[in-house]
Design goal:
Length: 223
Amino acid sequence: MSTPSTGRFAPLLRWLGLTLVVLMALQLVGLLVSWNWELEPFRQLFLDRLIGEAPMALVGLLLMLIAQRLESGVTARTPLRTVVGILSAVLAIAMLVAVPLSIGAENDLLNQAQQQDAAIAQQTQQLEAQKQQVANPAFIDQLIAEAEKEGRIPPGATSEQKKQRAREFIDGQIRPQLEQAERQLAQARLGRDLAVQQRRFAGTGRAVVLTIAFVILALIALA
């Protein structure tokens, strides 16, 4: 039996839960209207949207089940309880299907990451070679010769002045370029690692957890 306070509270929970479920459905409607499963970007977007919005539907269905039990009791069999159970089962199946799809997307990202690793390793080697070149005294002599040829060093400059001009050129232009290249490589490594880990934990891991949660909710609602 429900008390007057729970009786007033139950409709609010029911409509709040229904709102959350509808909001998830609306998030998917736009993709369903433009359905094109053959395209890889569409599959990734649909998978991300489905897994990302599913927790909202889980909370909504749970609120609806709580509202039903506040109104009718634990053992009462009502249409709302049946609807919650069916929707939970459907979403559990959807999450179960999403798991292998997410694993496949994760493998694709790993293959792309391996290709990026090769490119990053090559760029890193080039950067280290440029750093060693800048530290080589012969490189300063080469800069001095180029500057004299282009007229950027006065003819009467001393050897120390020429070296000072060369060091200023290195510190003012070459080193900032090397530091920028190093930052870009660090950002590339971070972006690669974040993409893989995000797919692994926020994609595959979340789909597994949601599958279990929806199965439990379906069993509770239909038991």
